[in-house]
Amino acid sequence: MFTLGTGSHYFALDVLDYQDKDSPYRQDKNLLHISIQVKDGDRSSIVTAGLMATHELSSLGNWFGQIAAGAALPPVVLLEPGLLFGATSSGENQFTVQVAMSALASPTWADTPFYAEPFDMQFQLDYEYMLLAARQLQELHRQFPTQ
User: Fold this and answer.
1) pLDDT of residue 13
2) What range does the domain containing 70 cover?
3) Is residue 103 pLDDT above 90, yes or no?
4) Banded pLDDT at 60 (limits 50, 70, 90)
5) Residue 32's closest CA among 58, 53, 3, 56?
6) DSSP state at residue 108
7) Could you tell me which of 76, 47, 81 has the C-alpha nearest to residue 64?
8) What are 104-114's pLDDT values in tens digits?
9) Residue 14 burial by CB count (10 A; 0-12/13-18/19+): exposed, middle or buried?
10) pTM of the model as a whole
């Protein structure tokens, strides 16, 4: 599982399975069915959808590692554009990470069964947490390798 934040301000992404592992088409069989859990204050949401390709797990993990090493990289938008990750340095070994969720990745809050408007979260992370995020994503790719 890939996590950002703790307690009442939390984003977690986990891979449930391949979306269509028996497909004859490479792109289709490498699409992952993921779960996104969000906690924002007293609101929480869990959504599941096919939103990420297998190779994007390692690519995103490498992105987190490069940001931690001081690279100024553009935001990452996934193949299925419901998730965007951005980061800026906010001091020595401190980073502000933005997660923007839209479309199928948008949270559904308990008071409405429909997808919410696009929703952004920001997290203040240190160098060690950035490296942990990179390792979590690379581990998910090891569990669900590109076919």
Assistant:
1) 97
2) 2-143
3) no
4) very high
5) 53
6) -
7) 76
8) 898 988 666 66
9) middle
10) 0.91
Q: Order of strands, edge to edge, in the sheet holding 31-40?
A: 2-6, 9-18, 31-40, 43-53
Gap between the Cα atoms of 129 and 43, Å rounded = 24
Total domains present in the chain: 1
- Residue 136's CATH number: 2.30.31
- What are the tens digits of pLDDT across the range 66-78? 999 989 899 998 8
How big is the chain by its Cα radius of gyration, in Å? 15
Distance CA 111, CA 116 (A): 10
pLDDT, position 81: 80
Residue whose tokens read 């951005």: 86
Helix residue ranges per DSSP H, the chain: 26-29, 54-68, 127-143
